[in-house]
Amino acid sequence: MRDRLLTAGTGAVTAFCLAFGGTACLITGMSLDLSLGVLALWCAAWALVGAGLVVWRLTPLLLAGFAVAGTAAWFYGNLLAQTEMLLYTVTDFYHMAYGLGPFYFGSQPPAPNTPYGLALYLLCAALTVAGVLAACKGKGASWAATLCLLPLGACLVVTDTVPAVWALFLLLLGFLLLILPQAVRRGNPVQGSRLTAMLALPLALALGILLLAVPQEGYQRQDFSVQVFSQIKQLAKNLIKELRPDLGNVTVPVSPGLEDLEEMDLSLPMLAGNRSGLILTVTAPQSGPVYLRGASFDIYSGTSWRCSGDEQWESLWPTGGEPLGDVTVQSYQAEPLLYFPYYIARAGWTRELTQGKIPNTENLTNYSFPVFRGPEASAQVRNPPGRGSALLSLPDETREWAEALLDQIGVERLSDGYTLETVRKIASYVRNSARYDLGTPAMPKEETDFARWFLMESDTGYCVHYATAATVLLRAAGVPARFVTGFMVPVQGGRETVVRGRDAHAWVEYYNGSCWAVLECTAAIEGVPLPTEPETQPTEGSTTQSTDRSSDPSESSEPSDPFNSSKPSDPSEPQNTQSPNEASRPGGNVPARPPFPWAAVLSWVLGIGLTAGAVWGQWKLRLLLRVRRFAVGGANRQALCRWRYHVYLCRLLRQKPDKSLRALAQKAKYSNHTLSPEELAEFDRVLAENVAVFQKKSPVSQVFYRLIFAIW
Question: Is the model's pLDDT at 36 over the cut of 50?
Fold first, then answer.
């Protein structure tokens, strides 16, 4: 009884750490909406009951219970729809990074409010059952460990799905408790359980010390890693440039914190895949969309944006206004620049913009900005003196077609400034010029102007396309403007909000008569309006309504402050502040699903099938040839053939050949004696024992020895 309780206890603890740790890695890494406390109780119940049933030899009852739970979930819990929603939510991260398209079963994505909790509960139960069987019976440890590592593997496909440290700790602890004592557990489950109990505390302490010694929050990139990354990224850029006509919509995801901060190449498709990497958290005093500004670019070449470093650009920030509170930003590692909101109160923040950004010279990972409400836009703006050429510069070819387009859409151009109506018309035109789609292919190689190609040729685009086109048209109309990259995320006032790499965004900054202001032209963004006249600003207490792209955006009466200058709206009212990544998620404007690559899939299926067939065929062929060799010739020749095979097996097992067989082999080779059937059968008996040793190894090892070495 005592040994059984020990086996059941250690098995339950191991299975719980494996199953709950693995599922929690998926939940925390993908920010899934599920109560971890309830999941922990659910997993603990399955681990305790399952371990007891296995130890008391009632394993069929455990499997039957899991089958009943799965059947009930299928028929009464809409398990299929919940599984589809879970897969859609997880694969949407891969879509944001690689443009593969989120996965779903039918022709339409799942309904926005479809839950996926039941699928996660059943997944956790399945992992617990596998862990209990491996830890208590001493069999199938490799399969159980692989299954429980799969949720973590799903978080490793993109770099912005980082699981919580405690979840990773539990998963690694369960993995070590299962694998390290496995050799002892396989021969003697009781001794294996005792060893597991002895290892539990030392392993937990070792893992804890390791995680404390190398904290995730304090990680800083080494100089050599940044250099290596830059070299690899440049090689990838050169390769894409060479192969782009054949590759089409290939993306190379990079971390927003490691982008080229001096130049952005628009001819590459990698910008669409720039949705992985950096993870931030932001806490703002008010609810609404918050723009976290990273870097700005002021020189347009037609195929790229570059930062000139002109310090005169940075003097057009407001110097004061109504205080709104502090915005706190925390990154999980020190980034080369600081991401800051609009507008920073200089009295409480002394750092200045340098070359379009705020360099993170102190390697800060946690910083706060005092912010205030920006000034309202003027109905008619005069350009700041002495900076006209720098703020309005465009290549001659670009300016020629841009001015012709402005004439077509009826935009009036003034000699020394502009009207706010000009800004509204340009933003409305760009916003409605194409359909939002992260799968937009790269600009053709023969094109020389990115903005012209997007407005004249392309039917789709994403934030980089819209922001570039709007900036070019604004400059052609006499409006000082520049291209900006960073993050845009809806926040709840006073609550910490996770900002993932998929929230990366590009927008326009234009001079509104007193300072730089945000102009949002991306079609997928509906919660941020176009600029309005000062007299049409809502009064205090008025509610915010979302902009309908089907109507004229110039008729919006919303405030244009990018920090949400209105008071927090009523929670009962529907909100529609989408970031570009949300446009492809349930409830957003789902972009056109990319065509299914049937040719590529069939090629892979055919290749995998041929490879599997070749492996299986050579295995069967080698077995057949061995059987034939064993039957060719007299008894002495057959004995020597079996002896050589026995030596081969002993070499693989790292054992010494059988002495009695060695004597019989020498007799068959050097004497005139013909071995009897009984002596030949002795070879077969020893070979059967050798094969039995191989068959006791783990399932993975059995597959390896069977298919690669053709043992049996």
Answer: yes
